[in-house]
């Protein structure tokens, strides 16, 4: 397809596509003339993933390039590709700060029997959240999160079920990214609505 068709099918402007080409986010097309090139469905999938990484995850161009390079290097490892796209796997060897609650989170992950990378950013996020709650006087520990973790397991099954039948790792990464990031506000909204409903059930007659 010509660049105009690629733009139409992807929803990305020609100007932006040319910028992505210059920045190395999108591989060059097959040259058909001095100023013309043809693109295929692989370009379309890659372009959609670029848009998801920059627009949905909010990554910079340089970080997006790093993620794409890592995805290309590990295309045969779907588990790793999904982790890279979602930010569940760190690209660098940088180590995050470890609050005391990190040990609790490690114990929780072990009790759950989850296969979660030791450097996963979500571990640090969970530990920092526990620390913040305690600093505000909320008596909470990692075991308090256990029933929530079980609910998260069920949600993860639903998430990954949405990727069934997608053979192309880049397409799967894009779909996972969109479902995860864009569905999170909807999941939060459902939680708020469920809380209102439960509150009405418990207290409306008081």
In short:
With about 210 residues, the protein is mostly helical. It is about 65% helix and about 5% strand. The chain contains nine helices and two strands, in the order ααββααααααα.
Architecture blueprint of SSEs:
Blueprint: H1 3-10, H2 14-23, E1 30-33, E2 36-38, H3 41-56, H4 61-73, H5 78-86, H6 102-112, H7 121-135, H8 146-161, H9 169-203
Antiparallel strand pairs: 1-2
Oligomeric form:
single chain
Number of beta-strand segments = 2
Taking the sheet with the most strands, its summary is: 2 strands, antiparallel
Query: Stretches where pLDDT falls below 50 for ≥5 residues?
Result: none
Q: Provide a count of the helices.
A: 9
Q: Which word captures the global form? A: elongated
H/E element order: HHEEHHHHHHH
Strand order of the largest sheet: 1-2
Taken as a percent bin, the fraction of beta residues is under 5%
Category by helix and strand content: mainly alpha
What would the average pLDDT be, to the nearest integer? 88
> Residue share in helices?
55-70%
Any overview of this molecule?
By secondary structure, the protein is mostly helical. It has helices at residues 3-10, 14-23, 41-56, 61-73, 78-86, 102-112, 121-135, 146-161, 169-203; strands at residues 30-33, 36-38. A hairpin with a 2-residue loop joins strand 1 and strand 2 (36-38). Helix 4 runs antiparallel to helix 5. The radius of gyration is 21 Å and the shape is elongated. The mean pLDDT is 88.
